[in-house]
Amino acid sequence: MxxxxxxxxxxxxxxxxxxxxxxxxxxGDIRNLFDEVEATAGDERRDAFRRLVRLLAVHETAxxxxxHPFVRRAVAGGEQIVEDRLTEERExxxxxxxxxxxxxxxxxxxxxxIQLRHDVQTHARAExxxxxxxxxxSTDVTDLAAMARAIKAAExxxxxxxxxxVESAAKNMALGPVxxxxxxxxxxxRKAMGGS
Length: 196
Ligand SMILES: [Fe+2]
Ligand SMILES: [Fe+2]
Known about the structure:
- By secondary structure, the protein is an all-alpha fold.
- It has helices at about 20-40, 40-75, 80-100, 110-135, 140-155, 170-175, 180-190.
- Helix 1 runs parallel beside helix 5.
- Bound molecules: fe (ii) ion (2 copies).
- One fe (ii) ion binds near residues 89, 123 and 127.
- One fe (ii) ion binds next to helix 1, helix 2 and helix 4.
């Protein structure tokens, strides 16, 4: 076990009705998981990487369902802001997929992971700067509460801490491919938002 501990999402009791603080906390969880993947090797790295992949998949899917639609309808110039973010998210997903096919002990793994980390952090800063700031200014309380509910519901699908026990890697793998996880996240978010 590495001494790097990534706190379990939700352990900090972030205000459950504050969608921006939830998303910012997830940006921090993603950063911590990158640290954990970089600091480990072998099975530990494999396990930390699975958790990173899951959180990134769930986080980006939830943003696509919750944050981007809000920015499109409520922010001047929102269409372009969202298009730029979607381009970044697409690129990150492609790089994630190529890393996902690689053995984490492959010498090409770490350089690609560091590149991905850089891109993901640039993307997160752009979201905070061009999207979250508008959500913070919104006064539609019902809308904000629905968004927060959706982000919480999605978050429950991506544990940031390893499962206890030696079978953790196998368990994480058994949770299924990323595309299926994204589909399930979409359903969960839409239900929580009160849609179909
Ligand atoms: Fe995003
Ligand atoms: Fe984000």
